[in-house]
Protein: Arginine biosynthesis bifunctional protein ArgJ
Amino acid sequence: MKKIKGGVTAPQGFSAMGLNAGIKKDKKDMAMIYSVVPCTAAGTFTTNQVKAAPVKWDQKMIYENEFSQAVVCNSGVANACTGEEGMKYCEEMAQETAAMLGIDKESVLVASTGVIGAQLPMDKIVNGIGMLVPTLDASLDGGHLAAEAIMTTDTVPKEVAVELMIGGKKVTIGGMCKGSGMIHPNMCTMLGFITTDVNISKDLLYEALSNDIKDTFNMISVDGDTSTNDTVLLLANGLAENKKITEKNKDYYKFVEALHEVTVTLSKKIAGDGEGATALLEVKMINCESKEQAVTLAKSVVTSSLVKAAIYGHDANWGRILCAMGYSTAKFNPDSVDIYFESKVGKLKIVENGRATDYSEKMATKILSEPEVTTIADVKMGDCEATAWGCDLTHEYVSINADYRS
Structure:
């Protein structure tokens, strides 16, 4: 397996485009992904009880239909808390896209991101669909433009692609996502679109995605807010022509490994681009008694406002880490925990058996001044581990969200 350039158009048979349809003043705000053949599809969605209309539409389409073939997405308006009118607009988006592409309405998935509570400007949406379809581009540029068009407060587009051999055939997986704020474990306002030319059954595609999400997108947090619109869609068109994966064999696990590389890369891109963030914070819990314990501890630390603020200040305030572990509800012995800080400039043990080591504050500050910082807690209770990703908490985060609608 190797990483290659590109995103959702890297696999065979997929094209995409992103452009400005007038929902936003001067930024791209609509995107489309299309496969030349119908795709097996899987999706995972927000756990928030308040689910946006596109989430409900996609759940119905994926669960009740065998194939999907296109995704249309708008940025700027979330189509959340919009009642029956919002659902009608989802259907209208799908119908308009299907008519222009010559495919079934039920094979079109929709996604929206942006301000909650506002109705979609359907005149602009319909016009945007009319501009997207004839400009769909199978090159890497098409995928990149689509990645730009789904951004809200993101500062950079987020893409990744990998290729590998399965059954003697070259298989590619590509992805793009958006997310910067309202990000919290349990599907994070994030949208993720993953495409692949692998030939795989719907059941195994869904199992691969749903199992992987637990260790990737569900392990990131920017601000503790779980969105109404969180969606990850995975489309597989089979054009790699490998022998269809219908059982959990060697080919299946190779696909699972490659999918994980895509999702963990996208997850880290979201966490590192948190609103106002200056650093990606990685939290590793090692030698835990169970996976559940490790996940609980890692999430508690990565979501701690005090830990996040300390990372912003490049302050090795390890007491905040131990404190966050302590209120996590996971049982452990604080007097046995070792804590380390690590970045590309080095690794430093700052706590041993629950007490501070004679570490260098200067070296700690140097480590914490890097754009990617890792904190490691060794719980010494077993051999299970978990990793969570987040970011520092800055003044800029408040500024961005204080006037988000204006």
Summary: Residues 173 and 196 are 4 Å apart (CA to CA). The radius of gyration is 22 Å. The chain has a mean pLDDT of 93. The first strand starts at residue 2 and ends at 4.
